[in-house]
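yo

u said u wanted the structure for the complex thing, so here. seqs first:
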Amino acid sequence: MYGVGFGIGAIGATTKRSSGVAIDTDAQAFFTAYGITDLTQKNAVNQLIVDLKAGNVWSGFSIIRPFVGGNSTAHAGNLKNVATYQATFYGGVTHDSNGITGNGTNGYMANNYDFSGANKDSFSAGFYARGAGTNFWFGATQISRVEIYNEANLFYWTVTNDNETLLTGQTNANKKGLYVVDRDSSNSKKFYKNASVIQSGTDVSTSFPSTDIFVLARSTSSGASFYSTAACSFFFIGRSFNSSEQTIINNAITTFQTSLGRNV
Amino acid sequence: MIAILTLEQKNQLLGLTYDGVSFFNPIQDRNNNWVISQEEINQSSLQWLKELPLIEYIGPVIENPFI
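structre next:
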């Protein structure tokens, strides 16, 4: 696996790290754009990209927010493409080495995302939760919805339709890890936790929301509301990923978080 | 915790960043006061903000987000 990873990394390599492993060009672009200088963070981000490319899922993402750097400037960055979808923070969002945390009062992140190039029948969004936080972990809820809403011992979730699905029996103590809402066809959607399906649905995709996807709140035409107290160490938007791809992504993100000492 | 703002103070903060990147987000509490969060105040260099008294936040009456 190391040899394959090294080979993939070498395709777009620029300089070599002190360990002799090549730095991926997308990783270097991110480091340069957002001032990432810490070697541990750089190694973790580089390996994340190597793993996602080796797993043939890298191209399926539109937004990847690894939340490294510990400050709002770096956390606003899009690892997938530093030239697109820079995030904007509003209100009381706390930034630290674990990522971002909402204050449940007025803090949230806008993705500034444009749905126009996306496919309503193949769409996903993922949120790496550090523990239960009330209200919307992320949400766009106008005309159609893409969301995860957390309440004590349950979730509401959906993707590209206006019917939220209730999932009960989810204790707050266990709400840690990578949660993904995935629309995999016009009449199928899935809710994943750490690459395992925890619920599925058959309601039909209708359209995309007419508002941006906010993180730590929901967005409607009136703006942000239902601000969350959640803590997030990773967020992404992309196409639908099948079961094998979910495992690849979850493993890559787990390795990433572990390298940073913040795996949950 | 939050601090209550006058209308003029709220308007002063609109469009401003508190750390050069993140925007202030004044909102209204249950009594329709304009308020700003302690997190924003702590990260801001505006001295007049830091002098505002902090109180517990009482948000709007919770509505069902799925109506």
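The interface with chain A takes residues 2, 19-27, 35-40, 57, 59, 65-66 of chain B (CB under 8 Å). The longest helix of chain B spans residues 7-13.
cya
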